[in-house]
Design a protein that fits this description.
Helix content: 55-70%
Low-confidence stretches: 1-34, 313-318, 359-396
Largest sheet: 4 strands, mixed
Radius of gyration: 22 Å
Number of strands: 4
Order of helices and strands: HHHHHHHHHEEEHHEHH
Length: 396
C-alpha cells in the first residue's frame, strides 16, 4: 500500500511538471515577463488550477531537504518571486476576484515565512550577502506593486494588491533592521537603475525609501535617512529637480499620481516634496544663498501635483517611443563629447535591453484564450518624459 502511495505521489509530481511546461508554452497575449520588475519568469501552474497543490507539494519537498538555514531562506525568496509572477498572471488574465485574493494570500504567506527565517539568522558575511540579494529582489516587488495599484480602478482589487505590498514593506524593513549596510546595497542597486528619466527617477527613489522608513523602528531609520540625503543631494545640488518644469502630473487611482507616467503614492510623495523644500532653502556654502531656481522648480512640481487631473489614458504610455528618444539623446550627448564611451555604451545597452522587452511581439492567442478578457497589460518602464500617445508601440 505504501509503494502505491509513493508511486501515486511521484506520478502526480511528474504530471504537474509536464503540465507546468505545457502551460508555459501557452503564453497570454501579454506575458508578465515583459516587466523589468518580475524577478522570476517561472509561472506554470496557477493557483486557479486544481493541480496547484502538486506545485506546492514539490516546493515543500525542496524546502524540507534544504538543511542550511541561509540556503533555505534563499529558496523561500525564490518561491516568493514565483508566487509574485503567479499573482501578476492571475491579475492579467482572470475575471475572478477570488482567484486574485488566493494568489495574494499565497504570496503574503510566503513573505511571512521568509520574514521569520531572516529573523532567526545570526548576522555574518554569508547572511549579509543573502540580505543584499533579498533586498534587491524585494525592492523590485515593491515597485511592481506600485505600478499595479496605481493603474487599477477597482477598489477591492486595490485592497488586495495593497495587502500584498504591505507584506513586501514589512520584509524590506526586516532586512534593513537586520543589517542596513547589506540591505542598502540591494535597495540602492534597484533605485539607482530605475528605468525613468533623471529627476523623476530620484523622486521615485525617495518615495520608495520614505515608505520603507515608515515601517522601521527609530533606531533603524538612520541608514534610510543617509540614503535619502544622498538622493536629495543629486536632485538639489546637481539641479536635477529643475527638470520638474517639464514634468506632467496626473491622478491615476485614488491616492496615486502619475508623474510623467511614473506612479507615486500621494501621501509619500507629498512628504518627499516637503523635505525637498526644506533642503532647497538651505544656504549654498559657495554662494551663501539658497538656490532660487531649485525652490521655484519644487514649487512648480507641488502646484502640478495639487492641480493634477484624472488620467484619461493608461498610466504607462508610449513606452518604446520614449526609450528610442532617450537613446537618441544619449547619442547626441556622446557626439558632443558630454559623456564618455563607457558611460554611453552601458546606458544604451540597458535601454536597448528594455526596448527589446517592451516591444517583443506576443504570440497570437488561441481560440481557447479568445474568451479571456484582454489583460490590463505588462508593467513597461517609462524612460522619457513624452507621454502623449498610448501603449500601441509597446504592446505590438
Amino acid at each position: 500500500m505504501k509503494k502505491i502511495s509513493i508511486f501515486l505521489i511521484l506520478g502526480l509530481l511528474i504530471f504537474s511538471q509536464v503540465a507546468l511546461g505545457e502551460e508555459n508554452k501557452t503564453k497570454p497575449r501579454l506575458s508578465v515577463a515583459h516587466s523589468p520588475y518580475i524577478v522570476s519568469e517561472k509561472v506554470g501552474i496557477l493557483p486557479t488550477s486544481p493541480l496547484y497543490f502538486t506545485k506546492e507539494l514539490w516546493r515543500g519537498i525542496k524546502l524540507f531537504f534544504t538543511f542550511d538555514p541561509v540556503k533555505k531562506a534563499d529558496l523561500e525568496s525564490q518561491i516568493a518571486d514565483e508566487k509574485l509572477a503567479e499573482l501578476v498572471k492571475v491579475y492579467e488574465t482572470s475575471k475572478s476576484k477570488e482567484a486574485l485574493q488566493k494568489a495574494v494570500q499565497n504570496y503574503v504567506k510566503t513573505q511571512e515565512k521568509l520574514t521569520n527565517r531572516i529573523k532567526n539568522l545570526e548576522v555574518n558575511p554569508k547572511v549579509e550577502e543573502l540580505i543584499t540579494k533579498l533586498a534587491e529582489r524585494n525592492t523590485r516587488h515593491l515597485i511592481l506593486f506600485d505600478e499595479l495599484i496605481a493603474k487599477e480602478k477597482d477598489q477591492l482589487i486595490i485592497d488586495d494588491l495593497i495587502q500584498a505590498r504591505q507584506s513586501s514593506d514589512a520584509i524590506t524593513a526586516n532586512q534593513v533592521d537586520k543589517s542596513w549596510r547589506a540591505a542598502q546595497a540591494g535597495i540602492e542597486n534597484v533605485l539607482n537603475n530605475l528605468p525613468y528619466p533623471e529627476g523623476v527617477k530620484e523622486l521615485k527613489a525617495l518615495e520608495v525609501l520614505t515608505k520603507i522608513e515608515e515601517k522601521l523602528p527609530e533606531e533603524a531609520k538612520k541608514g534610510i535617512e543617509t540614503a535619502k540625503e544622498n538622493i536629495e543631494k543629486r536632485l538639489i545640488e546637481e539641479g536635477k529637480i529643475q527638470s520638474a518644469q517639464k514634468w506632467e502630473a496626473l491622478q491615476s487611482s485614488e491616492g496615486w499620481y502619475a508623474i510623467n507616467g511614473v506612479p507615486v503614492e500621494k501621501q509619500a510623495v507629498e512628504k518627499v516634496i516637503e523635505e525637498l523644500e526644506e533642503k532647497a532653502k538651505e544656504v549654498n556654502p559657495v554662494s551663501q544663498r539658497p538656490n532660487i531656481v531649485n525652490i521655484e522648480a519644487i514649487k512648480e512640481l507641488k502646484t502640478k501635483i495639487e492641480e493634477a487631473k484624472p488620467a484619461e489614458t493608461n498610466l504607462v504610455q508610449n513606452i518604446c517611443e520614449s526609450i528610442e528618444k532617450q537613446i537618441k539623446q544619449l547619442e547626441e550627448l556622446f557626439k558632443n563629447k558630454e559623456i564618455d564611451q563607457e558611460t554611453f555604451n552601458s546606458k544604451v545597452a540597458i535601454l536597448k535591453k528594455e526596448l527589446e522587452k517592451c516591444s517583443k511581439p506576443s504570440d497570437q492567442p488561441s481560440e481557447e484564450q479568445s474568451s479571456v478578457p484582454k489583460p490590463i497589460g505588462p508593467v513597461c518602464p517609462q524612460i522619457a518624459p513624452d507621454t502623449s500617445k498610448g501603449l500601441e508601440e509597446c504592446l505590438k
